[in-house]
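Complex record, two chains
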Amino acid sequence: MSNLIRSLVGPRVPLEELDAHRGRYLAPTLVFMLARVVLLVSIFFPYWHMELDAPQYPNGLSLTAYVNHLTGDVKEIDGLNHYIGMRPLGEAAAFERAASVWMIIAMFLLVEGAAVIHSRWAVLLALPAVTFPLGFVADLHYWMRTFGLNLNPDAPLSAAVKPFIPTVLGEGGIGQFKTFATFGLGYWLAVAGAVLTIVGFGFHRHAYKPLVDRLDRERRAHP
Amino acid sequence: MKNPIRTSMACHAVLAAASAGLLFSCFAGEANAQENRRRRAAQEGKPVELLPEQVAGLTKIANERQLNVDDLMAAAKTFTPSGRHDEYVLFSSGGQSGQVFAIGVPSMRLLRSIAVFTPESWQGYGFGGKDDHVIESLKVNGTPVLWGDTHHPALSETKGDYDGQFLFIGDKANARVGVIDLRDWETKQVVKNPLTISDHGAAFVTPNTEYVIEGGQYATVLGYGYAPPEEYKKSYRGMVTMWKFDRAKGRIDLANSFALELPPYWQDLADAGKSASDGFFFINSFNVEMATGGAEKGNPPFEAGASKRDMDYLHIIDWRKAEAAFRAGKVKKINGFPVIMLETSIAEGLLYFAPEPKSPHGVDVTPNGQYMVVAGKLDPHVTVYSIEKVKAAIAAKKFSGSDEFGVPVLDFDAVKEVQVELGLGPLHTQFDDKGYAYTSLFLDSAVARWSLGGEYATMHPEQPWKLVQKTPVQYNIGHLCAAEGDTVSPDGRFLVSMSKWSVDRFLTTGPLLPQNFQLLDISQTGTTMPVIYDLPIGVGEPHYCQMIKADKLKSWKVYPEVGWNTRTQQLDANAPKQGQEGVTREGNKVLVKMTAVRSHFLPEHVEVNEGDEVTWRITAVETAQDATHGFCIGAYNINLSLEPGEFEEVRFIADRPGTYPFYCTEFCSALHLEMMGYLHVKPTAGHAAAVPTTGTSRDSK
């Protein structure tokens, strides 16, 4: 049992080795730490932003998505969407919004775990944080598609506006509206978190791979 | 394992620092959105450079339209491109329309009317069914009086400068004062003077809007009493009312308001002192002759009898002393209202008179408060009084006598600073920032610019107290209004002549012609003061107006919260929320809870029985600017304006059975016409036969 744990957690660094190559072992810890902080901070910044322009809205309408809530002219956009039979935005991604903060905290802890685990299993722990930005976009697209393609056929403007897939990024349009969607700072922080996690693994591998290999060699030598 | 622990501690230190930064970061998203909007809104114009072909094009247009260079300059000074906002807002009396008009300056575009004394259907003012609060507020002695002769608007002031919070307006015909809240541009209160039927000197405010002054005019028996003209001197009285304003509540506080009894001269315009003259206010008067008319009986007509003497009396009232006398209970209740009687005013030194050339009109205090300018009307001069001299004369008791009621009359020469001859029919005076005064000349049909003296003498190149220039206006100018021209800090730049007759200025509109609001450019010194715009006002005969810098107005774009009660200016617990809609009944009382949103009312069917008492509550659950709905029930005389967030309640007896469409009266959206519903009033048994199934038509006999 303790063997299994030991192989999962990976080899510990001997103190004399640590004193000799302090930088080598500190690097993955620090980079992972930075990745975690950046990911956590991203909760407080918008992930995605859409500006909607139409003649009768000279100041435009805007929609800003954080990982856990929507702000901006949600009510007005919902009001307009009812004309084309789109469901209220509040009904989209309800689970994701409720779970997102916990998910990010979980990722935070998992990456912290990756820093402590010195075996190749650490990769598994960091995988969610690395794939999170991609998952966000995929989920956003999924909901846009679901909402856009499932318009109420009895809506007042159903004859004029056919089901469509709203644009996740860049310029799009629906009816008299032009839409401009961009990622927000929060999203870029999440991307930075993912990249830093990958970079952290470079250092992780550099630091612990030799130890793991030595351990393997010792095991093979003394089975 | 020392190092991992240390590392972990370092981690947490960094985390703590990061969390400290979060507070800041929360605002970043919002700032980003605002920045986007600013970028979109910014359409900065480059400096104009006319190319030769453009000059040729402009010249061609000017020649085709017969415009001279002055006309082109006037157009350039006033034309305001689409989307560009005016620098000033002119709040004008709406005359007999009973409304207030808001006009942008320099474009002179009519922005809005504000209903005050007259029900107005677009604003849903007075069309709220049974016991409508507007109609209730317009009652005079129990009878709705559904019009007003609005005269003098007064913007609320702080330290003698407009603060853009409230607007007051007097109704001459019925001696009422309206209070408008400039957050939503809506009339919140109308008070009826309990002493007098009609007035004139309303509304004027003291420098911090402590009081709204309402001066009377045609003397009557105070408290709406009766007396024949023979008892004029004995029983008729003039008055001035000091309405206490409660700024926090946005209402006149009737319990802390009072009046002063005045002799039965006809009090005219008023102005509150400021700075040097703070604590006083001034009212002109005419008919100190106490003429009682009766031309049909062979008596001298009013116009002759009331202008026989050479001098009338400028009333000088120490309102702080008057307030103290009121608080000390030195009042008599007339019609339930506290009045400081004449003998008290005389004994306490609240009231002094100064002789003024006969039948004057305006009394206007200079921005520094040192001078009171009285316009002669029947005298070609303006007479300037010095507050220092007035105070000194009062202290030294330099009286030339007293009037028939015992009010001390200050010696004219002791209080007069100077008289300036301007021309025929001087009426009202305003001021600019360059030491000039501007006086309307009714008979000359001109605006006179003249130089002030005293500490103003160094501000302009002219000799002090001299006429500088007269610009003709078309025609018969009454009041005039310079930008913030009656405050402690006038802006100069623009002046509006409120010309009473337009005669040939516009296309003929039948025998009833519009007024002519003429914009004058007073930005330069000396003799240049051209008319640059004519705005016809075809809705009433306005009297006075005030011009406020537009950025002082902090108007709401939509109501602050959905379910807003516009009378209490707070969220109303009775406002139906989305999801609470429905119709409930208790006996014959029916409660309709309705929401309005583009493009439907909910519920759309309302069924009641004939004779039911219906209470109908509607919330406009809109938050977008300009997404206003109307709500009308034809034949029941109901129409509401439901601005975004507004809550309204109407009551009516469903006393006429039938099928009544209700609908949205604002073109709110593409599906505006679909925004309707039916009120079904079911006939009671036995009544059904009496209900016609079709309307009467010529063929139905």
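Note: Residues 2-41 of chain B form the longest helix (40 residues).
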